[in-house]
Amino acid sequence: MSPDKRDLPAAEELILxxxxxxxxxxxxxxxxxxxxxxxxxxxxxxxxxxxxxxxVSGNGLDLFPLHQxxxxxxxxxxxxxxxxxGRPAEGLDLLAAATGYAPxxxxxxxxxxxxxxxxxxxxxxxxxxxxxxxxxxxxxxxxRAGRAALAPYLALARNAVTAHHGHxxxxxxxxxxxxxxxxxxxxxxxxxxxLRTTPSKIGEVWLGYAYRSAGRIxxxxxxxxxxxxxxxxxxxxxxxxxxxxxxHGRLDEALDWxxxxxxxxxxxxxxxxxAQRLRFRRDGDVAHLVALADFIREHPEDSHEHTDxxxxxxxxxxxxxITPAAGPAVDALRANHAGGQLGxxxxxxxxxxxxxxHTLTRAAPGLRVQLTQGPGPDPREPRRAVDWRLxxxxxxxxxxxxxxxxxxxxxxxxxxxxxxxxxxxxxxxALATLDLTDLLGLLAHPPATPPTMLGRxxxxxxxSLWVRSVQVWAxxxxxxxxxxxxxxxSTRRSVLLDLAWGVEDWATEAALFALVTVAWVxxxxxxxxxxxxxxxxxDAVEVTRTRPxxxxxxxxxxxxxxxDLDPESRALAQTLAxxxxxxxxxxxxxxxxxxxxxxIFRRR
Length: 604
Description:
604 residues; single chain; mainly alpha; 61% helix
């Protein structure tokens, strides 16, 4: 179905429709009526003109043909004409399709849908089918703001259960719709009535879902277990029971149920998704989510859409979003953003990533920053010999700025969050057309935030977040640079490794994230990536023995997101990510830094 964007408002569409109808140009009249209905589905004048058109053309159906990528206004107009022609079931099928396309629009808010006699004319079986179509086309639950548009379907359900008392399928389908629309008490009553009419597995499932939505968890579990007794081979119900138990803190019982399902079929998609989500919730080991990503890649045809991987990664550092930056320059940046007076000169006594310094001086033009050289390795020098350098020793960019076209292209895709690492990898392909020099230039010369809602939110939330987001997406773009080159000898690999081992910078984190991401989607590179991450983490920890490393905690979170990381490095990362240095009591200044880091992460 297509929106087939119309430039005219509904009122003007109707003016043109009347003119066309007067001139006998029925095709153009139909097109304009469809345009009006697409914008204002309940507008009385549009329905009046549709009735006039039907009267002069037989029934008007030929003027609203269905074809591939059909305009939604055409679908809705044809639905109303089918109802007028005595074929309301076919009309409801089309309204259900329109609802699936745009659920928040009141496509069904017309008298013929809510008429009491419609349910009698349709019969219980056909009505149940239509209600299940609506359930399949809408969210579960429907957001509160979108429920009014679906109220006519609930009215149809009420009329149907009143007219047909003894039809279990109808009561179950009506219960499912009521539950989605927040009418949980009604959903429980209808599901219970359906079960009294005809006990069945699906009836118990509908009742279990209704109880669960009502917060009556013991009764929900009891109903779902009765469904298992009806059909011990329906492993989807096992997954439902496990998910319900897990969502209410009963992980051991949840895992027992899901293991029972996997014992029957180790490849059943619902069981695999639920099992890996619950295992990750139990111990936080990313290996479970990597195994789930592998399963998804190897089994693209699931029984239905699953969100377990995205739900598990949501809000998790680097699995689903960028971690907040840390360090004294970022503290000064945030103070300036909050309206604090920094003065003409700021003295920073700890290492400052070049990206952080540039972000600070861009946000506070004219500010002089004095850096104090402390003990330990020079943070302005790469940690290993590299060929590709972003920054000179004095902290200025060592690479040209990107072209304006590259900057504008990147700004369309930058976001601080993603569903999960494989999704981030896939999204990065949109940057595959950018040249290597542009991608590197974007790391050191990030463009300004776009004048969009996202840009304003990023600016208001954290002034460093936009720059870090740009760097992440530039590195994701690097993953798709010259993919014809074999990974072991590729330019993309060598550049990302050099960035990872370059000076301590936000770009280090971005490059490591890109490497971690490719390890999620390509098992053959996992040993190398895990080794690189482990070595980079160990190097950062070694440096923390002599001075602070502002990116250290973020590196720990990256390590925890890395497939096949060795147990020792994982334990080290867990300690560091928790804000505890794996060395004897650090100097007071470093101790205060870690305390500040922990506080920042708690706030988020």
